[in-house]
Amino acid sequence: MQEVFASLGTGFGVALAPFNIMLVLIGCFAGTLIGALPGIGPINGVAILLPIAYGLGLPPESALILLAGIYYGAEYGGRISSILLNVPGDAGAVMTTLDGNPMAKRGEAGRALSLSAIASFVGGTFAVILMSMFGPALARFAVTFSPSDYVALMVFAFASLASLVGKNPWKTLMGALIGLMLATMGIDGNTGVPRFTFGVPDLLAGIDFLIVVIGLFGMAELFHLVEQQVTGKLQTLPVDSSFVRMADLARTKWTILRASIIGFFIGILPGTGASVASAVAYGAEKRAAGADTSEFGKGDVRGLAAPEAANNAAASGAMVPMLTLGIPGSGTTAILLGALMLFNVQPGPLLFTQHPEIAWGLIASMYVGNVALLIINLPLVGLFARMLTIPQHYLTPLIAILAFIGVYSIVGNPFDLFLIILLGMFGWLLRKMEFPLAPVILGFVLGGLFEDNLRRALSISAGDWGILVESWKSLALYGLAVLAVVLPATLSYLNKRRARDRAPT
Amino acid sequence: MKIAALKYCVAGLLLASSAALADVTAPECIAPAKPGGGFDLTCRVAQTGLAAQFDKPIQVTFMPGGIGAVAFSQFNTTRTDDPNAIVAFSSGSLLNIATGKFGEFTENDVRFLATVGADFGAVVVRADSNFETLDDLMAVFKENPAEVVVGAGGSVGSQDWMKGALLLKSVESSPRDMRYVSFEGGGEALAALLGGSIDMVTADVGEVITHLEAGNIRVLAVLSPERLDAPFDQIPTAIEQGYDVEWTIMRGFYMGNNVPDADYQTWADAFAKAYETEEFRKIREEKGLLPLNLSGAELDTKVKQRIGELRQIARDAGLIK
């Protein structure tokens, strides 16, 4: 432990150099904006700015500090358009729309933005602390997760998300199936056979997650707005100067802590990232709330705090295997890994001994960055919230333009622009029929991971299903899954009985 | 004064360009993928390495879609004679052409132009694996191939799978008996190897170097035709250990089929000249590629022959009929 503090001291020496502080601030600010724009998320922000950072001729630790600032800044920023516009700013912010947007609709955008900023701060900082203390050990543990353990993890995720079942369980189930169907399109990762591509070469690589999110959520939301405007049903939102209250923080403190832990651990697993982490955290939180879930999905502060704490914790968690083992835990960290190699720095176990100034400088800069993001974000809450006072007939086309530019700047294929319109109409139709959209997204993400890992596990065991229950990690996760289903039911039963006992007869 | 100097410069440039090149006025390198991947890298090598060969900088543009199929079909339909544009390819693209993933068009519908470098396959196990040498591994592959769980970043039928299939074939086992697990990229496969889920990874030399230095893994063989330079000079090739398996991952460019010969030659010469420069060597090394210099007709012939071989392997393995 002594050693960690000494190294961290070295790190802060690097991170607190005035030039690097400036880079952290620039990175965090740019990242917040990038995250807030619908369509452009951390992965694209970092990919686009990497050549610029390299071209500036910065020393490696400074360039990495800048890029990392953009990375977690974007995770912060993603919540802004989720809350204000019901359009997720990036993949990890999908769950944030569920309770964040209803809050904004009821005139509490400021409260939602400030609470989620604090949740993000706690999640991010918590993850960095865990990373500095136990990073290498955790990374070594994370790689022992075998495909069969991932299957168990996905079962746990589905079990905790069963709580998303809304008014109509059948519609939820069908939504998840639609998501799963979308995920199967493209060349099958296992056998190389194209599935459901209908001979269209553009579909060979499958549908990008970003396209699904922007289409089903963003475009559908726009169509919905236009429809409301045309039919004159559009309500003007109340002008908003609300802010997070102490009572909110008191109510969500355990939520944020739980979600931070969940987010961090899912983040360090290679292959799962912020989107899975926020979904599981949301589901777990709704489960943990027991009988008291009536407000979830309608603007519950817990439903907002959980995914935000989790996706920021996951963003930092994903850095752990990247730095300590040279194995990226997410798409964005894969690009950061590429950035390190560009500067001739080899990530991996030797990074901490060969280039402590880079490894620890980066970690220390994450402490600084989280504080900076909180300081940048809280005063801007009022400004962001005022975006809602922009008249709808300006706002709608503006979002549409941003979404189109965002998508095109990243995928650069006009086919995908048609695809988001198509998915948008589909999403709008689903909404008309009162299908919840979150299960579609979750079916897409979790279903894809579930299928891949199940088939990997079965390839390893040559078809023996026993492999699924071989390791203690799998068994523990199945145990948690059962708990996630049984516990809330039991709790609510006990609560009811207690209430009945107490009631005078 | 300054303005006058600038004028001379511009005039000089114009003269030079009209003299040197017929039609290559706005060189463009198309990476048929999103930014950040291997095709992007291939174009960057050309952009920096050929900077001295053209008056104008080479523009890098991205044309993602269908693992390169979108670009391939565009250069077979609307841009068959574009003299300015070169499109990045890798051995993976060649395999896709061979197995018919790119639809109706084949290798004879484009002209292969030049390479920028290569990477080679590597047979990788954990540092504490029971397989001490390639012979240990191959003995099991011969007797009971299903005992070894092979993993890699590609799907069945991908380059990574091919490397495993060739290893099995070299000891007369059927590739169909291989227990192959595909992961999302080489990083995840190496994680699964380190975590003990799989026994062996058919990786690329370029992606294992960090782990080699850290002492986590053992490379039983490199799948190059000859021994590589340091830091890989201690690792024997599969061929010198008596197994006829070679896997070169070639990175380079193709052009449309109807590009005028003169323009094709301009590009090919530009590459041939660039190979000799220090800038090219430097950028190639920076991007983690090993030397492989082939341009013009020589490459075109070689690539087309290679695709023929790949098609045969794929047919033998039952991937195509």
TrEMBL record, chain A:
It comes from the Bacteria. InterPro entries: DUF112_TM. It holds the Pfam family TctA. Keywords: Membrane, Transmembrane, Transmembrane helix. The keyword Mitochondrion does not apply. The keyword Iron does not apply. The chain crosses the membrane at residues 12-36, 48-72, 112-138, 150-166, 173-191, 203-226, 261-284, 325-345, 357-378, 398-426, 475-494. Residues 21-442 form the DUF112 domain. PANTHER family: TRICARBOXYLIC TRANSPORT PROTEIN. This is Tripartite tricarboxylate transporter permease. It comes from Stappia taiwanensis.
UniProtKB/TrEMBL annotation, chain B:
Residues 1-22 form the signal peptide. It holds the Pfam family TctC. CDD domains: PBP2_Bug_TTT (cd07012). It comes from the Bacteria. Keywords: Signal. SUPFAM superfamilies: Periplasmic binding protein-like II. The keyword Glycoprotein does not apply. Belongs to the UPF0065 (bug) family. This is Tripartite tricarboxylate transporter substrate binding protein. The lineage of its organism: Bacteria, Pseudomonadati, Pseudomonadota, Alphaproteobacteria, Hyphomicrobiales.
